[in-house]
Design a protein that fits this description.
The protein has a single domain, classed as Aldolase class I (TIM Barrel). It is 42% helix and 15% strand. An 8-stranded parallel sheet has the order 7-6-5-4-3-2-1-8. The protein contains 11 helices and 8 strands. By secondary structure, the protein is of the alpha/beta class. Keywords: Cytoplasm, Gluconeogenesis, Glycolysis, Isomerase. Pathway: Carbohydrate degradation; glycolysis; D-glyceraldehyde 3-phosphate from glycerone phosphate: step 1/1; Carbohydrate biosynthesis; gluconeogenesis. It is an enzyme of class 5 (isomerase). This is Triosephosphate isomerase.
Length: 262
């Protein structure tokens, strides 16, 4: 990883931990997580609970503030306000969070989110000064049929379109091969590096080499405390978007192990 890019280990809790469980879990891991972050200042950890639990996690974090531990939402809607039952706006998210996950594969797969919709959400997030973590990745069928490069280029170019020059360096991209999520099977390090380098090259062609070198690109897909170091040791991989392992106390070990940069 480039020296100027701070690593991110983001924990996506998905649809787990209501307010009581979320508060208990954060209280359990926070002392050890805060120690890791304080002793490894080049790492930022972002916790992303469900919307209903954002406030209680915010309260726990505020009671023991630690620079480098941040709160993120799992989604937002691009409209400012209105009759959109069940949705939350970027302005609402900003009251509690500094970051937001956009275009996660489960949003694309289960809720039919398109690149164009993800792009609208991205622009809304940037308008309200949220750090967007934009997810891209191919399905198992696309992977096995050799379409990875094509799919990644399409998603990057369309999901990350229409950025102003001053916005282009303020993006985080998460490469998540869909066939590895929840399967216990991670992509090989070489596979991940190959795709992440392609992402940076595509982004460079869109917004220039300076912006491409400024953005952080994470790997996501069955990341664990045991395999994280192999990924984050690579210069082009700037951290991880963690799913199931972020729901366990081992998340602290995962963050600690991710610090092993070459």
């Amino acid at each position: 990883m480039a020296a100027t890019r701070t690593a991110i280990i983001a924990g996506n809790w998905k649809m787990n931990y209501g307010p009581r469980q979320a508060a208990d879990f954060v209280k359990q891991i926070l002392p050890a997580l805060a120690h890791v972050i304080r002793t490894h200042p080049h790492i930022v950890s972002i916790l992303c609970p469900p919307d209903i639990s954002l406030q209680v996690v915010r309260d726990v974090l505020d009671a023991q503030p630690t620079r480098g531990i941040e709160l993120g939402a799992q989604n937002l809607y691009f409209e400012e306000k209105g009759a959109y039952t069940g949705e939350i706006s970027a302005e609402m998210v900003k009251e509690l969070c500094s970051a937001v996950i956009l275009g996660h594969s489960e949003r694309r797969t289960y809720f039919a989110e398109t690149d164009e919709l993800v792009n609208k959400k991205l622009l809304a997030a940037l308008k309200h000064h949220l750090l967007p973590i934009v997810c891209v990745g191919e399905t198992l069928q696309q992977y096995e049929s050799g379409q990875t490069s094509q799919i990644i280029e399409q998603q990057v170019r369309h999901s990350l379109a229409n950025l102003q020059p001053e916005q282009a360096g303020q993006i985080v991209i998460a490469y998540e091969p869909l066939w590895a999520i929840g399967s216990g099977k991670a992509a090989t390090v070489d596979d991940a590096v190959k795709v992440i380098r392609q992402i940076r090259q595509i982004y460079s062609s869109q917004y220039g080499s300076s912006a491409a070198q400024a953005i952080r690109i994470l790997y996501g897909g069955s990341v664990t405390a045991d395999n994280i170091a192999a990924f984050t040791a690579q210069e082009d991989i700037d951290g991880a978007l963690v799913g199931g392992a972020s729901l366990k106390a081992e998340f602290v070990d995962l963050v600690r192990n991710s610090s092993q940069k070459k």
